[in-house]
Amino acid sequence: MSALLKETFAKCKKEGRNALVTFITAGYPTTEDTIPIMKGMQDAGVDIIELGIPFSDPIADGPTIQAANNVALENGITVPKCLDLVKQARSAGITIPIILMGYYNPILKYGEIQLIEDSAKVGANGFIVVDLPPEEAIKFRSSCAKYGLSYVPLVAPATTDERLKVLGEIADSFIYVVSKMGTTGASSTVSTGISELCGRVRKFAGSTPLAVGFGVSTREHFLTVGEDADGVVIGSKIITLLGESKSGERGTAAYNYVKSILGEEYVSHAPSTFVPATAGGSKETKPILEEEHKFNPRFGDFGGQYVPEALHTCLAELEKGFESAVADPEFWKEFKSLYSYIGRPSSLHKAERLSEYAGGAQIWLKREDLNHTGSHKINNGLAQVLIAKRLGKKKIIAETGAGQHGVATATACAKFGLECTVFMGAEDVRRQALNVFRMRILGAKVIAVTNGTQTLRDATSEAFRYWVSNLESTHYVVGSAIGPHPYPTLVRTFQSVIGQETKEQFKALNDGKLPNAVVACVGGGSNSTGMFSPFEHDTEVKMLGVEAGGDGLDTERHSATLTAGIPGVFHGVKTYVLQDADGQVHDTHSVSAGLDYPGVGPELAFWKSTGRADFVAATDAQALEGFKLLSQLEGIIPALESSHAIYGGVQLAKTMTKDQHIVINVSGRGDKDVQSVAEILPRLGPEIGWDLRFEADPTKEGK
């Protein structure tokens, strides 16, 4: 059905006009509105409709599309229902091309080939996949071609010539040109430089039509953009108008808006009938994309860069900066000169009373909680700020859950005189008020994110959205071993000092022997990959990650991604994800803000898939028990994140003999969590036999 798209652009060119391409989200404002809206658009003269498949975490989209996605999902829209809407549209007499547009994870969950086949059956004409990298797009496009469907690539102002060449070769109907860097959204003005951008794309696209979008909202915009493009895309403005329209009048609202763009005198040129294309209508191409990477972006089947095209150039810049830094002895000299500032090496010592309590293996503690700022996060924070300086960035952003990464990043920025903005879920702002105030004391701006669950997941999404709009001046200091390449490798590299020190310190204290096991809590993976990676090839050393079991794995309130999740794509990387049957990312829960995340680092996913590491989950109550044990047996108040590892480590030690040894990474201190523990003790305390109520004020006794 790519043939219909080609015919549409050819007809527009013959008539001396631009194709109008409009975007709507399936099921927004209601499912019942979708077909009348599409019909109104066709009747007014729209040439192509992009039907958005809603996704829970659309990192390339601004507030308007985000809100539409959320409403559509609340209305029960799924991938099968999107296909049914296409089928209904064809039955209702909609004959113009319909392109399905969305993010990769719902497609992956449905099954690529199955979705392409089913889409062809219901009358769709092709796909736009926002976060599909070119190397994956080549394969996806080949599959589309077998069923006569089109794959429409997205290009951005920062897309390199090498990628333009490949994307130009796989385009078989048209190319969607994103006119500006940033997220989707209507604008009062259109981007400058469209002529130059289109000219550069045409060098590689040849005669393939270009449709330009992002920020178009008026007839003036349409005409201005149309001077250089073959088609013009409008989305966010339409979504806004539909949301403001009354139920039952949205088809008319769509019709009237399109008329305002094309002119009242314009007459629709829709085909009289819809003719399904036969399979194999497109020529299959096999372009090759060769991008050099010093460090492999993949960890087996996991990893990669599943990001909007606008983000790729900045990731490439960061990757080259990272590669250059770690190859430069002067960089390491500067970084290691900061060890005294951090407090490295952090201590390793035996936990005598905790070992006695467990009654099995000897338990050792790696004390990352003694670092400056109170956790392991300072290792990565300082290193990334040094890289940002090398790249000439003046502004730093970060995401944070428990607040420790935010504090570490704010600390590094204060030391080196950089502007710092930290994104933090509003719920985490509430439960980690102490760390929020610490960040502000250090000079950072803290932005409370009110989207979704208002936790780490949403803070990460918002940080990515901000970054894509501010690439030139800003570096994003990702705090965990998550996200697109090079972040998982970068974060692990600078956190691996934990495991390296542990190995050398333990050997020095134990006649050159290695521990039998190392244990760390797992959220995204910064402290666990840091502890585990130096032991990866020491196969006699067990690696145990302890995830957040929340209210229990038999409930939906947990964050045990590796224990209960399945492979998917989330926040730019293929990894294990907590998701539903439609590929929408689950809400999560943990008593610990730093573990409250539905994804996990790809290296941990790889170790799970190969069996190199084992993963278990500790419930909120069990983590509280770990918190109590370390506090009362060793005089160390751990972070709630670390408390998961304490509980899991103690359980492991109980299964081992007294001549064996395990090391638990105490990733952070618990000052920040004291108020949270006080709040949850009345509910969870009885489960572990811990009643810790405040006594009456002695100054008021007898009064």
Short structural summary:
By secondary structure, the chain is an alpha/beta fold.
Describe the overall structure:
- The protein is α/β, with parallel strands linked by helices and 703 residues long.
- It has 29 helices and 23 strands.
- Strands 5-4-3-2-1-9-8-7-6 form a nine-stranded parallel β-sheet. It has a six-stranded mixed β-sheet with strand order 12-13-23-18-19-22, sandwiched between helices. It has a four-stranded parallel β-sheet with strand order 16-15-14-17, sandwiched between helices.
- Helix 17 packs across helix 18, helix 17 (377-390) crosses helix 22 (487-495) and helix 22 (487-495) crosses helix 24 (526-532).
- The radius of gyration is 27 Å and the shape is elongated.
Structural features:
single chain; nine-stranded parallel sheet; alpha/beta; 703 residues; six-stranded mixed sheet; 45% helix; 16% strand
Shape descriptor reads elongated
Biggest beta sheet summary: 9 strands, parallel
Number of helices: 29
Q: What is the SS-derived class? A: alpha/beta
**What's the β-strand tally?**
23
Radius of gyration, CA atoms, in whole angstroms: 27 Å
Distance between the termini: 85 Å
Strands side by side in the biggest sheet: 5-4-3-2-1-9-8-7-6
Helix content: 40-55%
